[in-house]
């Protein structure tokens, strides 16, 4: 399963998130985490790194990932919006409330189930 994580504003926050996710032992064991670049828009000089991409394997826990993401966000000195996307399923983490964490967890569980059903058919 492929999940995209976007942070607004991106600048150094995206690199911080990438580093945080790569240090998480459970995530390291069950997923690949990479920075992805978007092709430059007309008038821009080069590609812009704007997404952290997570590719999961067996044993991956949506709940653990959502909590890891919330823990990172709570360490940040300024407010940011973290958007989690899998294909057409999208949700955002803004204040790290229990409700937001549960919504992100549910989104990822549904995405995982959809992927498993799609590959079984």
| Strand percentage | 25-35%
CATH architecture name: 2-Layer Sandwich
| Largest beta-sheet characterization | 5 strands, antiparallel
Backbone shape: globular
In the CATH scheme, what's the topology name? Alpha-Beta Plaits
In round numbers, the mean pLDDT is: 85
- The top-level CATH class is Alpha Beta
Helix content: 40-55%
Query: What is the succession of H and E elements?
Result: EHHEEHEEH
Number of helical segments?
4
Distance between the termini: 16 Å
Extended strand count? 5
Radius of gyration: 14 Å
Low-pLDDT segments: none
Pfam families: EACC1
InterPro entries: EACC1
Structure description:
This protein is of the alpha+beta class and 121 residues long. The chain has one domain: Alpha-Beta Plaits. It has four helices and five strands. Strands 2-3-1-4-5 form a five-stranded antiparallel beta sheet. Strand 4 and strand 5 (89-93) form a beta hairpin. Helix 3 runs antiparallel to helix 4 (98-120). It holds the Pfam family EACC1.
């Amino acid at each position: 399963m492929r999940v995209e994580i976007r942070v607004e504003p991106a600048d150094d926050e995206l690199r911080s998130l990438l580093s945080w996710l790569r240090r998480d032992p459970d995530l390291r064991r069950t997923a690949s985490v990479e920075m992805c670049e978007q092709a430059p828009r007309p008038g821009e000089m080069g590609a812009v790194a704007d997404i952290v991409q997570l590719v999961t394997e067996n044993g991956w826990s949506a709940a653990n990932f959502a909590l890891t993401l919330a823990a990172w966000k709570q360490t940040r000195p300024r407010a940011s919006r973290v958007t989690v996307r899998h294909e057409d399923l999208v949700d955002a983490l803004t204040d790290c409330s229990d409700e937001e964490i549960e919504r992100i967890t549910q989104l990822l569980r549904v995405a995982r189930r959809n992927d498993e059903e799609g590959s079984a058919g």
